[in-house]
Design a protein that fits this description.
The chain is an all-alpha fold and 71 residues long. It has a domain at 29-71. The protein has helices at 9-25, 30-48, 51-68.
């Protein structure tokens, strides 16, 4: 059964398009883009997620990311 998101596709796609547009407009190289996105994730985890569950959620996030990367 697919996971049901609490966010609609239009909202998700709009934000994703904006983030990608900023990277493209600034001709950001892949390594810099990954560094910026990684630091953004670190900030979100540290500022918005309770310390008691932070490590577990980070691990789950990494597992999902690993599964979604195409070889």
């Amino acid at each position: 059964m697919p996971v049901q998101s609490q966010y609609n596709d239009a909202q998700y796609n709009e934000i994703l398009d904006q983030v990608l547009a900023v990277l493209e407009q600034n001709n950001v190289k892949t390594d810099l883009a990954l560094m910026v996105l990684g630091d953004t994730l670190t900030h979100i985890f540290n500022q918005r997620i309770d310390a008691n569950v932070r490590q577990k959620l980070a691990t789950q996030f990494c597992e999902v990311l690993t599964r979604t990367i195409k070889e």
